[in-house]
Amino acid sequence: MIPSERLKGIEAFVCTADSGSFTGAGVRLNLTNSAVSKSVARLEARLGSRLFERTTRRLMLTDVGAAFYETCVRVLGDLADAEAVLAAHRSEVVGRLKVDVPVAFGRMQAMPLLLAFAERHPNLRPSITFTDRRIDIVEEGIDVAIRIGASEPWPENLGHRYLGSERVTICAAPAYLDRSGMPVGAEALGAFDCILYGRGDGSTINWRFGRADGQVEERPVEGRIILGSAEAQVGAVKAGFGIAQLATWLIKDELNSGELVEILPEVATVGLPLHLAWPRRRQLTPQGQRSNRDAGRRIAYRLKRRGPDVQGTLTQKPTVRSSYALLTSGRPFISP
Questions:
Q1: What is the mean pLDDT of the chain?
Q2: Which of 43, 101, 118, 184 lies most in the core, judged by the most C-beta atoms within 10 Å?
């Protein structure tokens, strides 16, 4: 079977499953009820499997059909992403674009990219929110979001791309170390004043310690001060209130200037993962139609390949770059 044959009937099948009827799918695809029904029937014949249980009142996916549906949704989403990449060089981005970013990372790292993107596309009207709380991207109408520490499994209605992971290190101000001394090992941290990051639910983030065997160990740490802002943590550490574990992208300038000193470098390790997320479309956009979500995907791809000058502060698995070449130039977001 030639590859193009494998795509026939998939869109009709997915639309039928989404709408629950051939009639509803026909309305969405601008086809007749009969045309959609025949397309699905041909697909079932080609696959040798019944995808729907048909009754006089409704259609229901079979077990095989449900599994096939999940795969088809992902395939159509990937094709939509590819279409957006190919269209990026030939059509202008217009309209409102809603972006959500973490507070500190957004201000320090994402904003230069977003402003540059807006400058290249004067008809784009970005609306950018800064929040560290977990939000429902679809419910709040977000087109693209940066997430730090997002965990699996991802909801089926969200597309996402892994950008890399933070690198975290333990640091303190020289004045604090002059008063309190230098910890001789991770086990000695309990005798020092630690400044922790606190979540909105009252919990704190465990510290991560790299081991000699390459594994990462997480431990809870007793804190003198708990702060709900990474930038506030930096301020407290610089003021000499204690020791903190912070992402290196957050304190790069302070480490370079000597305002902060890295301690216990042997336990510095990979931190939280960074992802881009956006609502996943289940249907391909017709040629020529532009939407805010298309623009969101373009920013997602551009952030994937060309980001803030944090070279060396993030780690990432190697990726295939050629598929994104239409959208960017210059150095990649994260050096391999």
A1: 78
A2: 101
* Phi/psi-derived region of residue 136, left when phi > 0, alpha when psi is between -120 and 50, beta in every other case: beta
The three state secondary structure string of 150-192 is CCCCCCCCEEEEEEEEEEEEEEECHHHHHHHCCCCCHHHHHHC
**What are 59's strand-pairing partners?**
54
Crossing angle, helix 230-238 and helix 248-257, to 10 degrees?
Answer: 20
pLDDT tens-digit readout, 87-120: 655 566 677 888 999 999 888 888 888 888 888 8
Structure tokens at 68: 């096939």
pLDDT (tens digit, 9 = 90+) per residue, 277-294?
888 753 333 333 344 445
Strand partners, 124: 95
- Closest C-alpha among 45, 64, 52 to residue 25: 52
Closest to 162 measured CA to CA, from 335, 317, 328: 317
Distance CA(160)–CA(137), nearest Å, equals 12
Which candidate, 84, 79, 131, places its Cα nearest to that of 105?
131
Q: What is the dihedral of CA 277, 100, 147, 235, to 10 degrees?
A: 170
Enumerate the H helices of the chain as residue ranges: 10-19, 22-29, 33-47, 63-87, 103-105, 111-120, 174-180, 230-238, 248-257, 292-305
**How many C-beta atoms lie closer than 10 Å to residue 334's C-beta?**
21
For 17-35, the pLDDT digits (tens) are 888 888 888 888 889 989 9
The CA-based dihedral angle spanning residues 206, 276, 316, 214, taken in that order and rounded to the nearest 10 degrees: 20
Give the DSSP letter of residue 198: B
The two structure tokens encoding residue 26: 């026909």
Q: What is the pTM of this model?
A: 0.59
Amino acid at 231: E
Cα gap 298→281, rounded to integer Å? 14
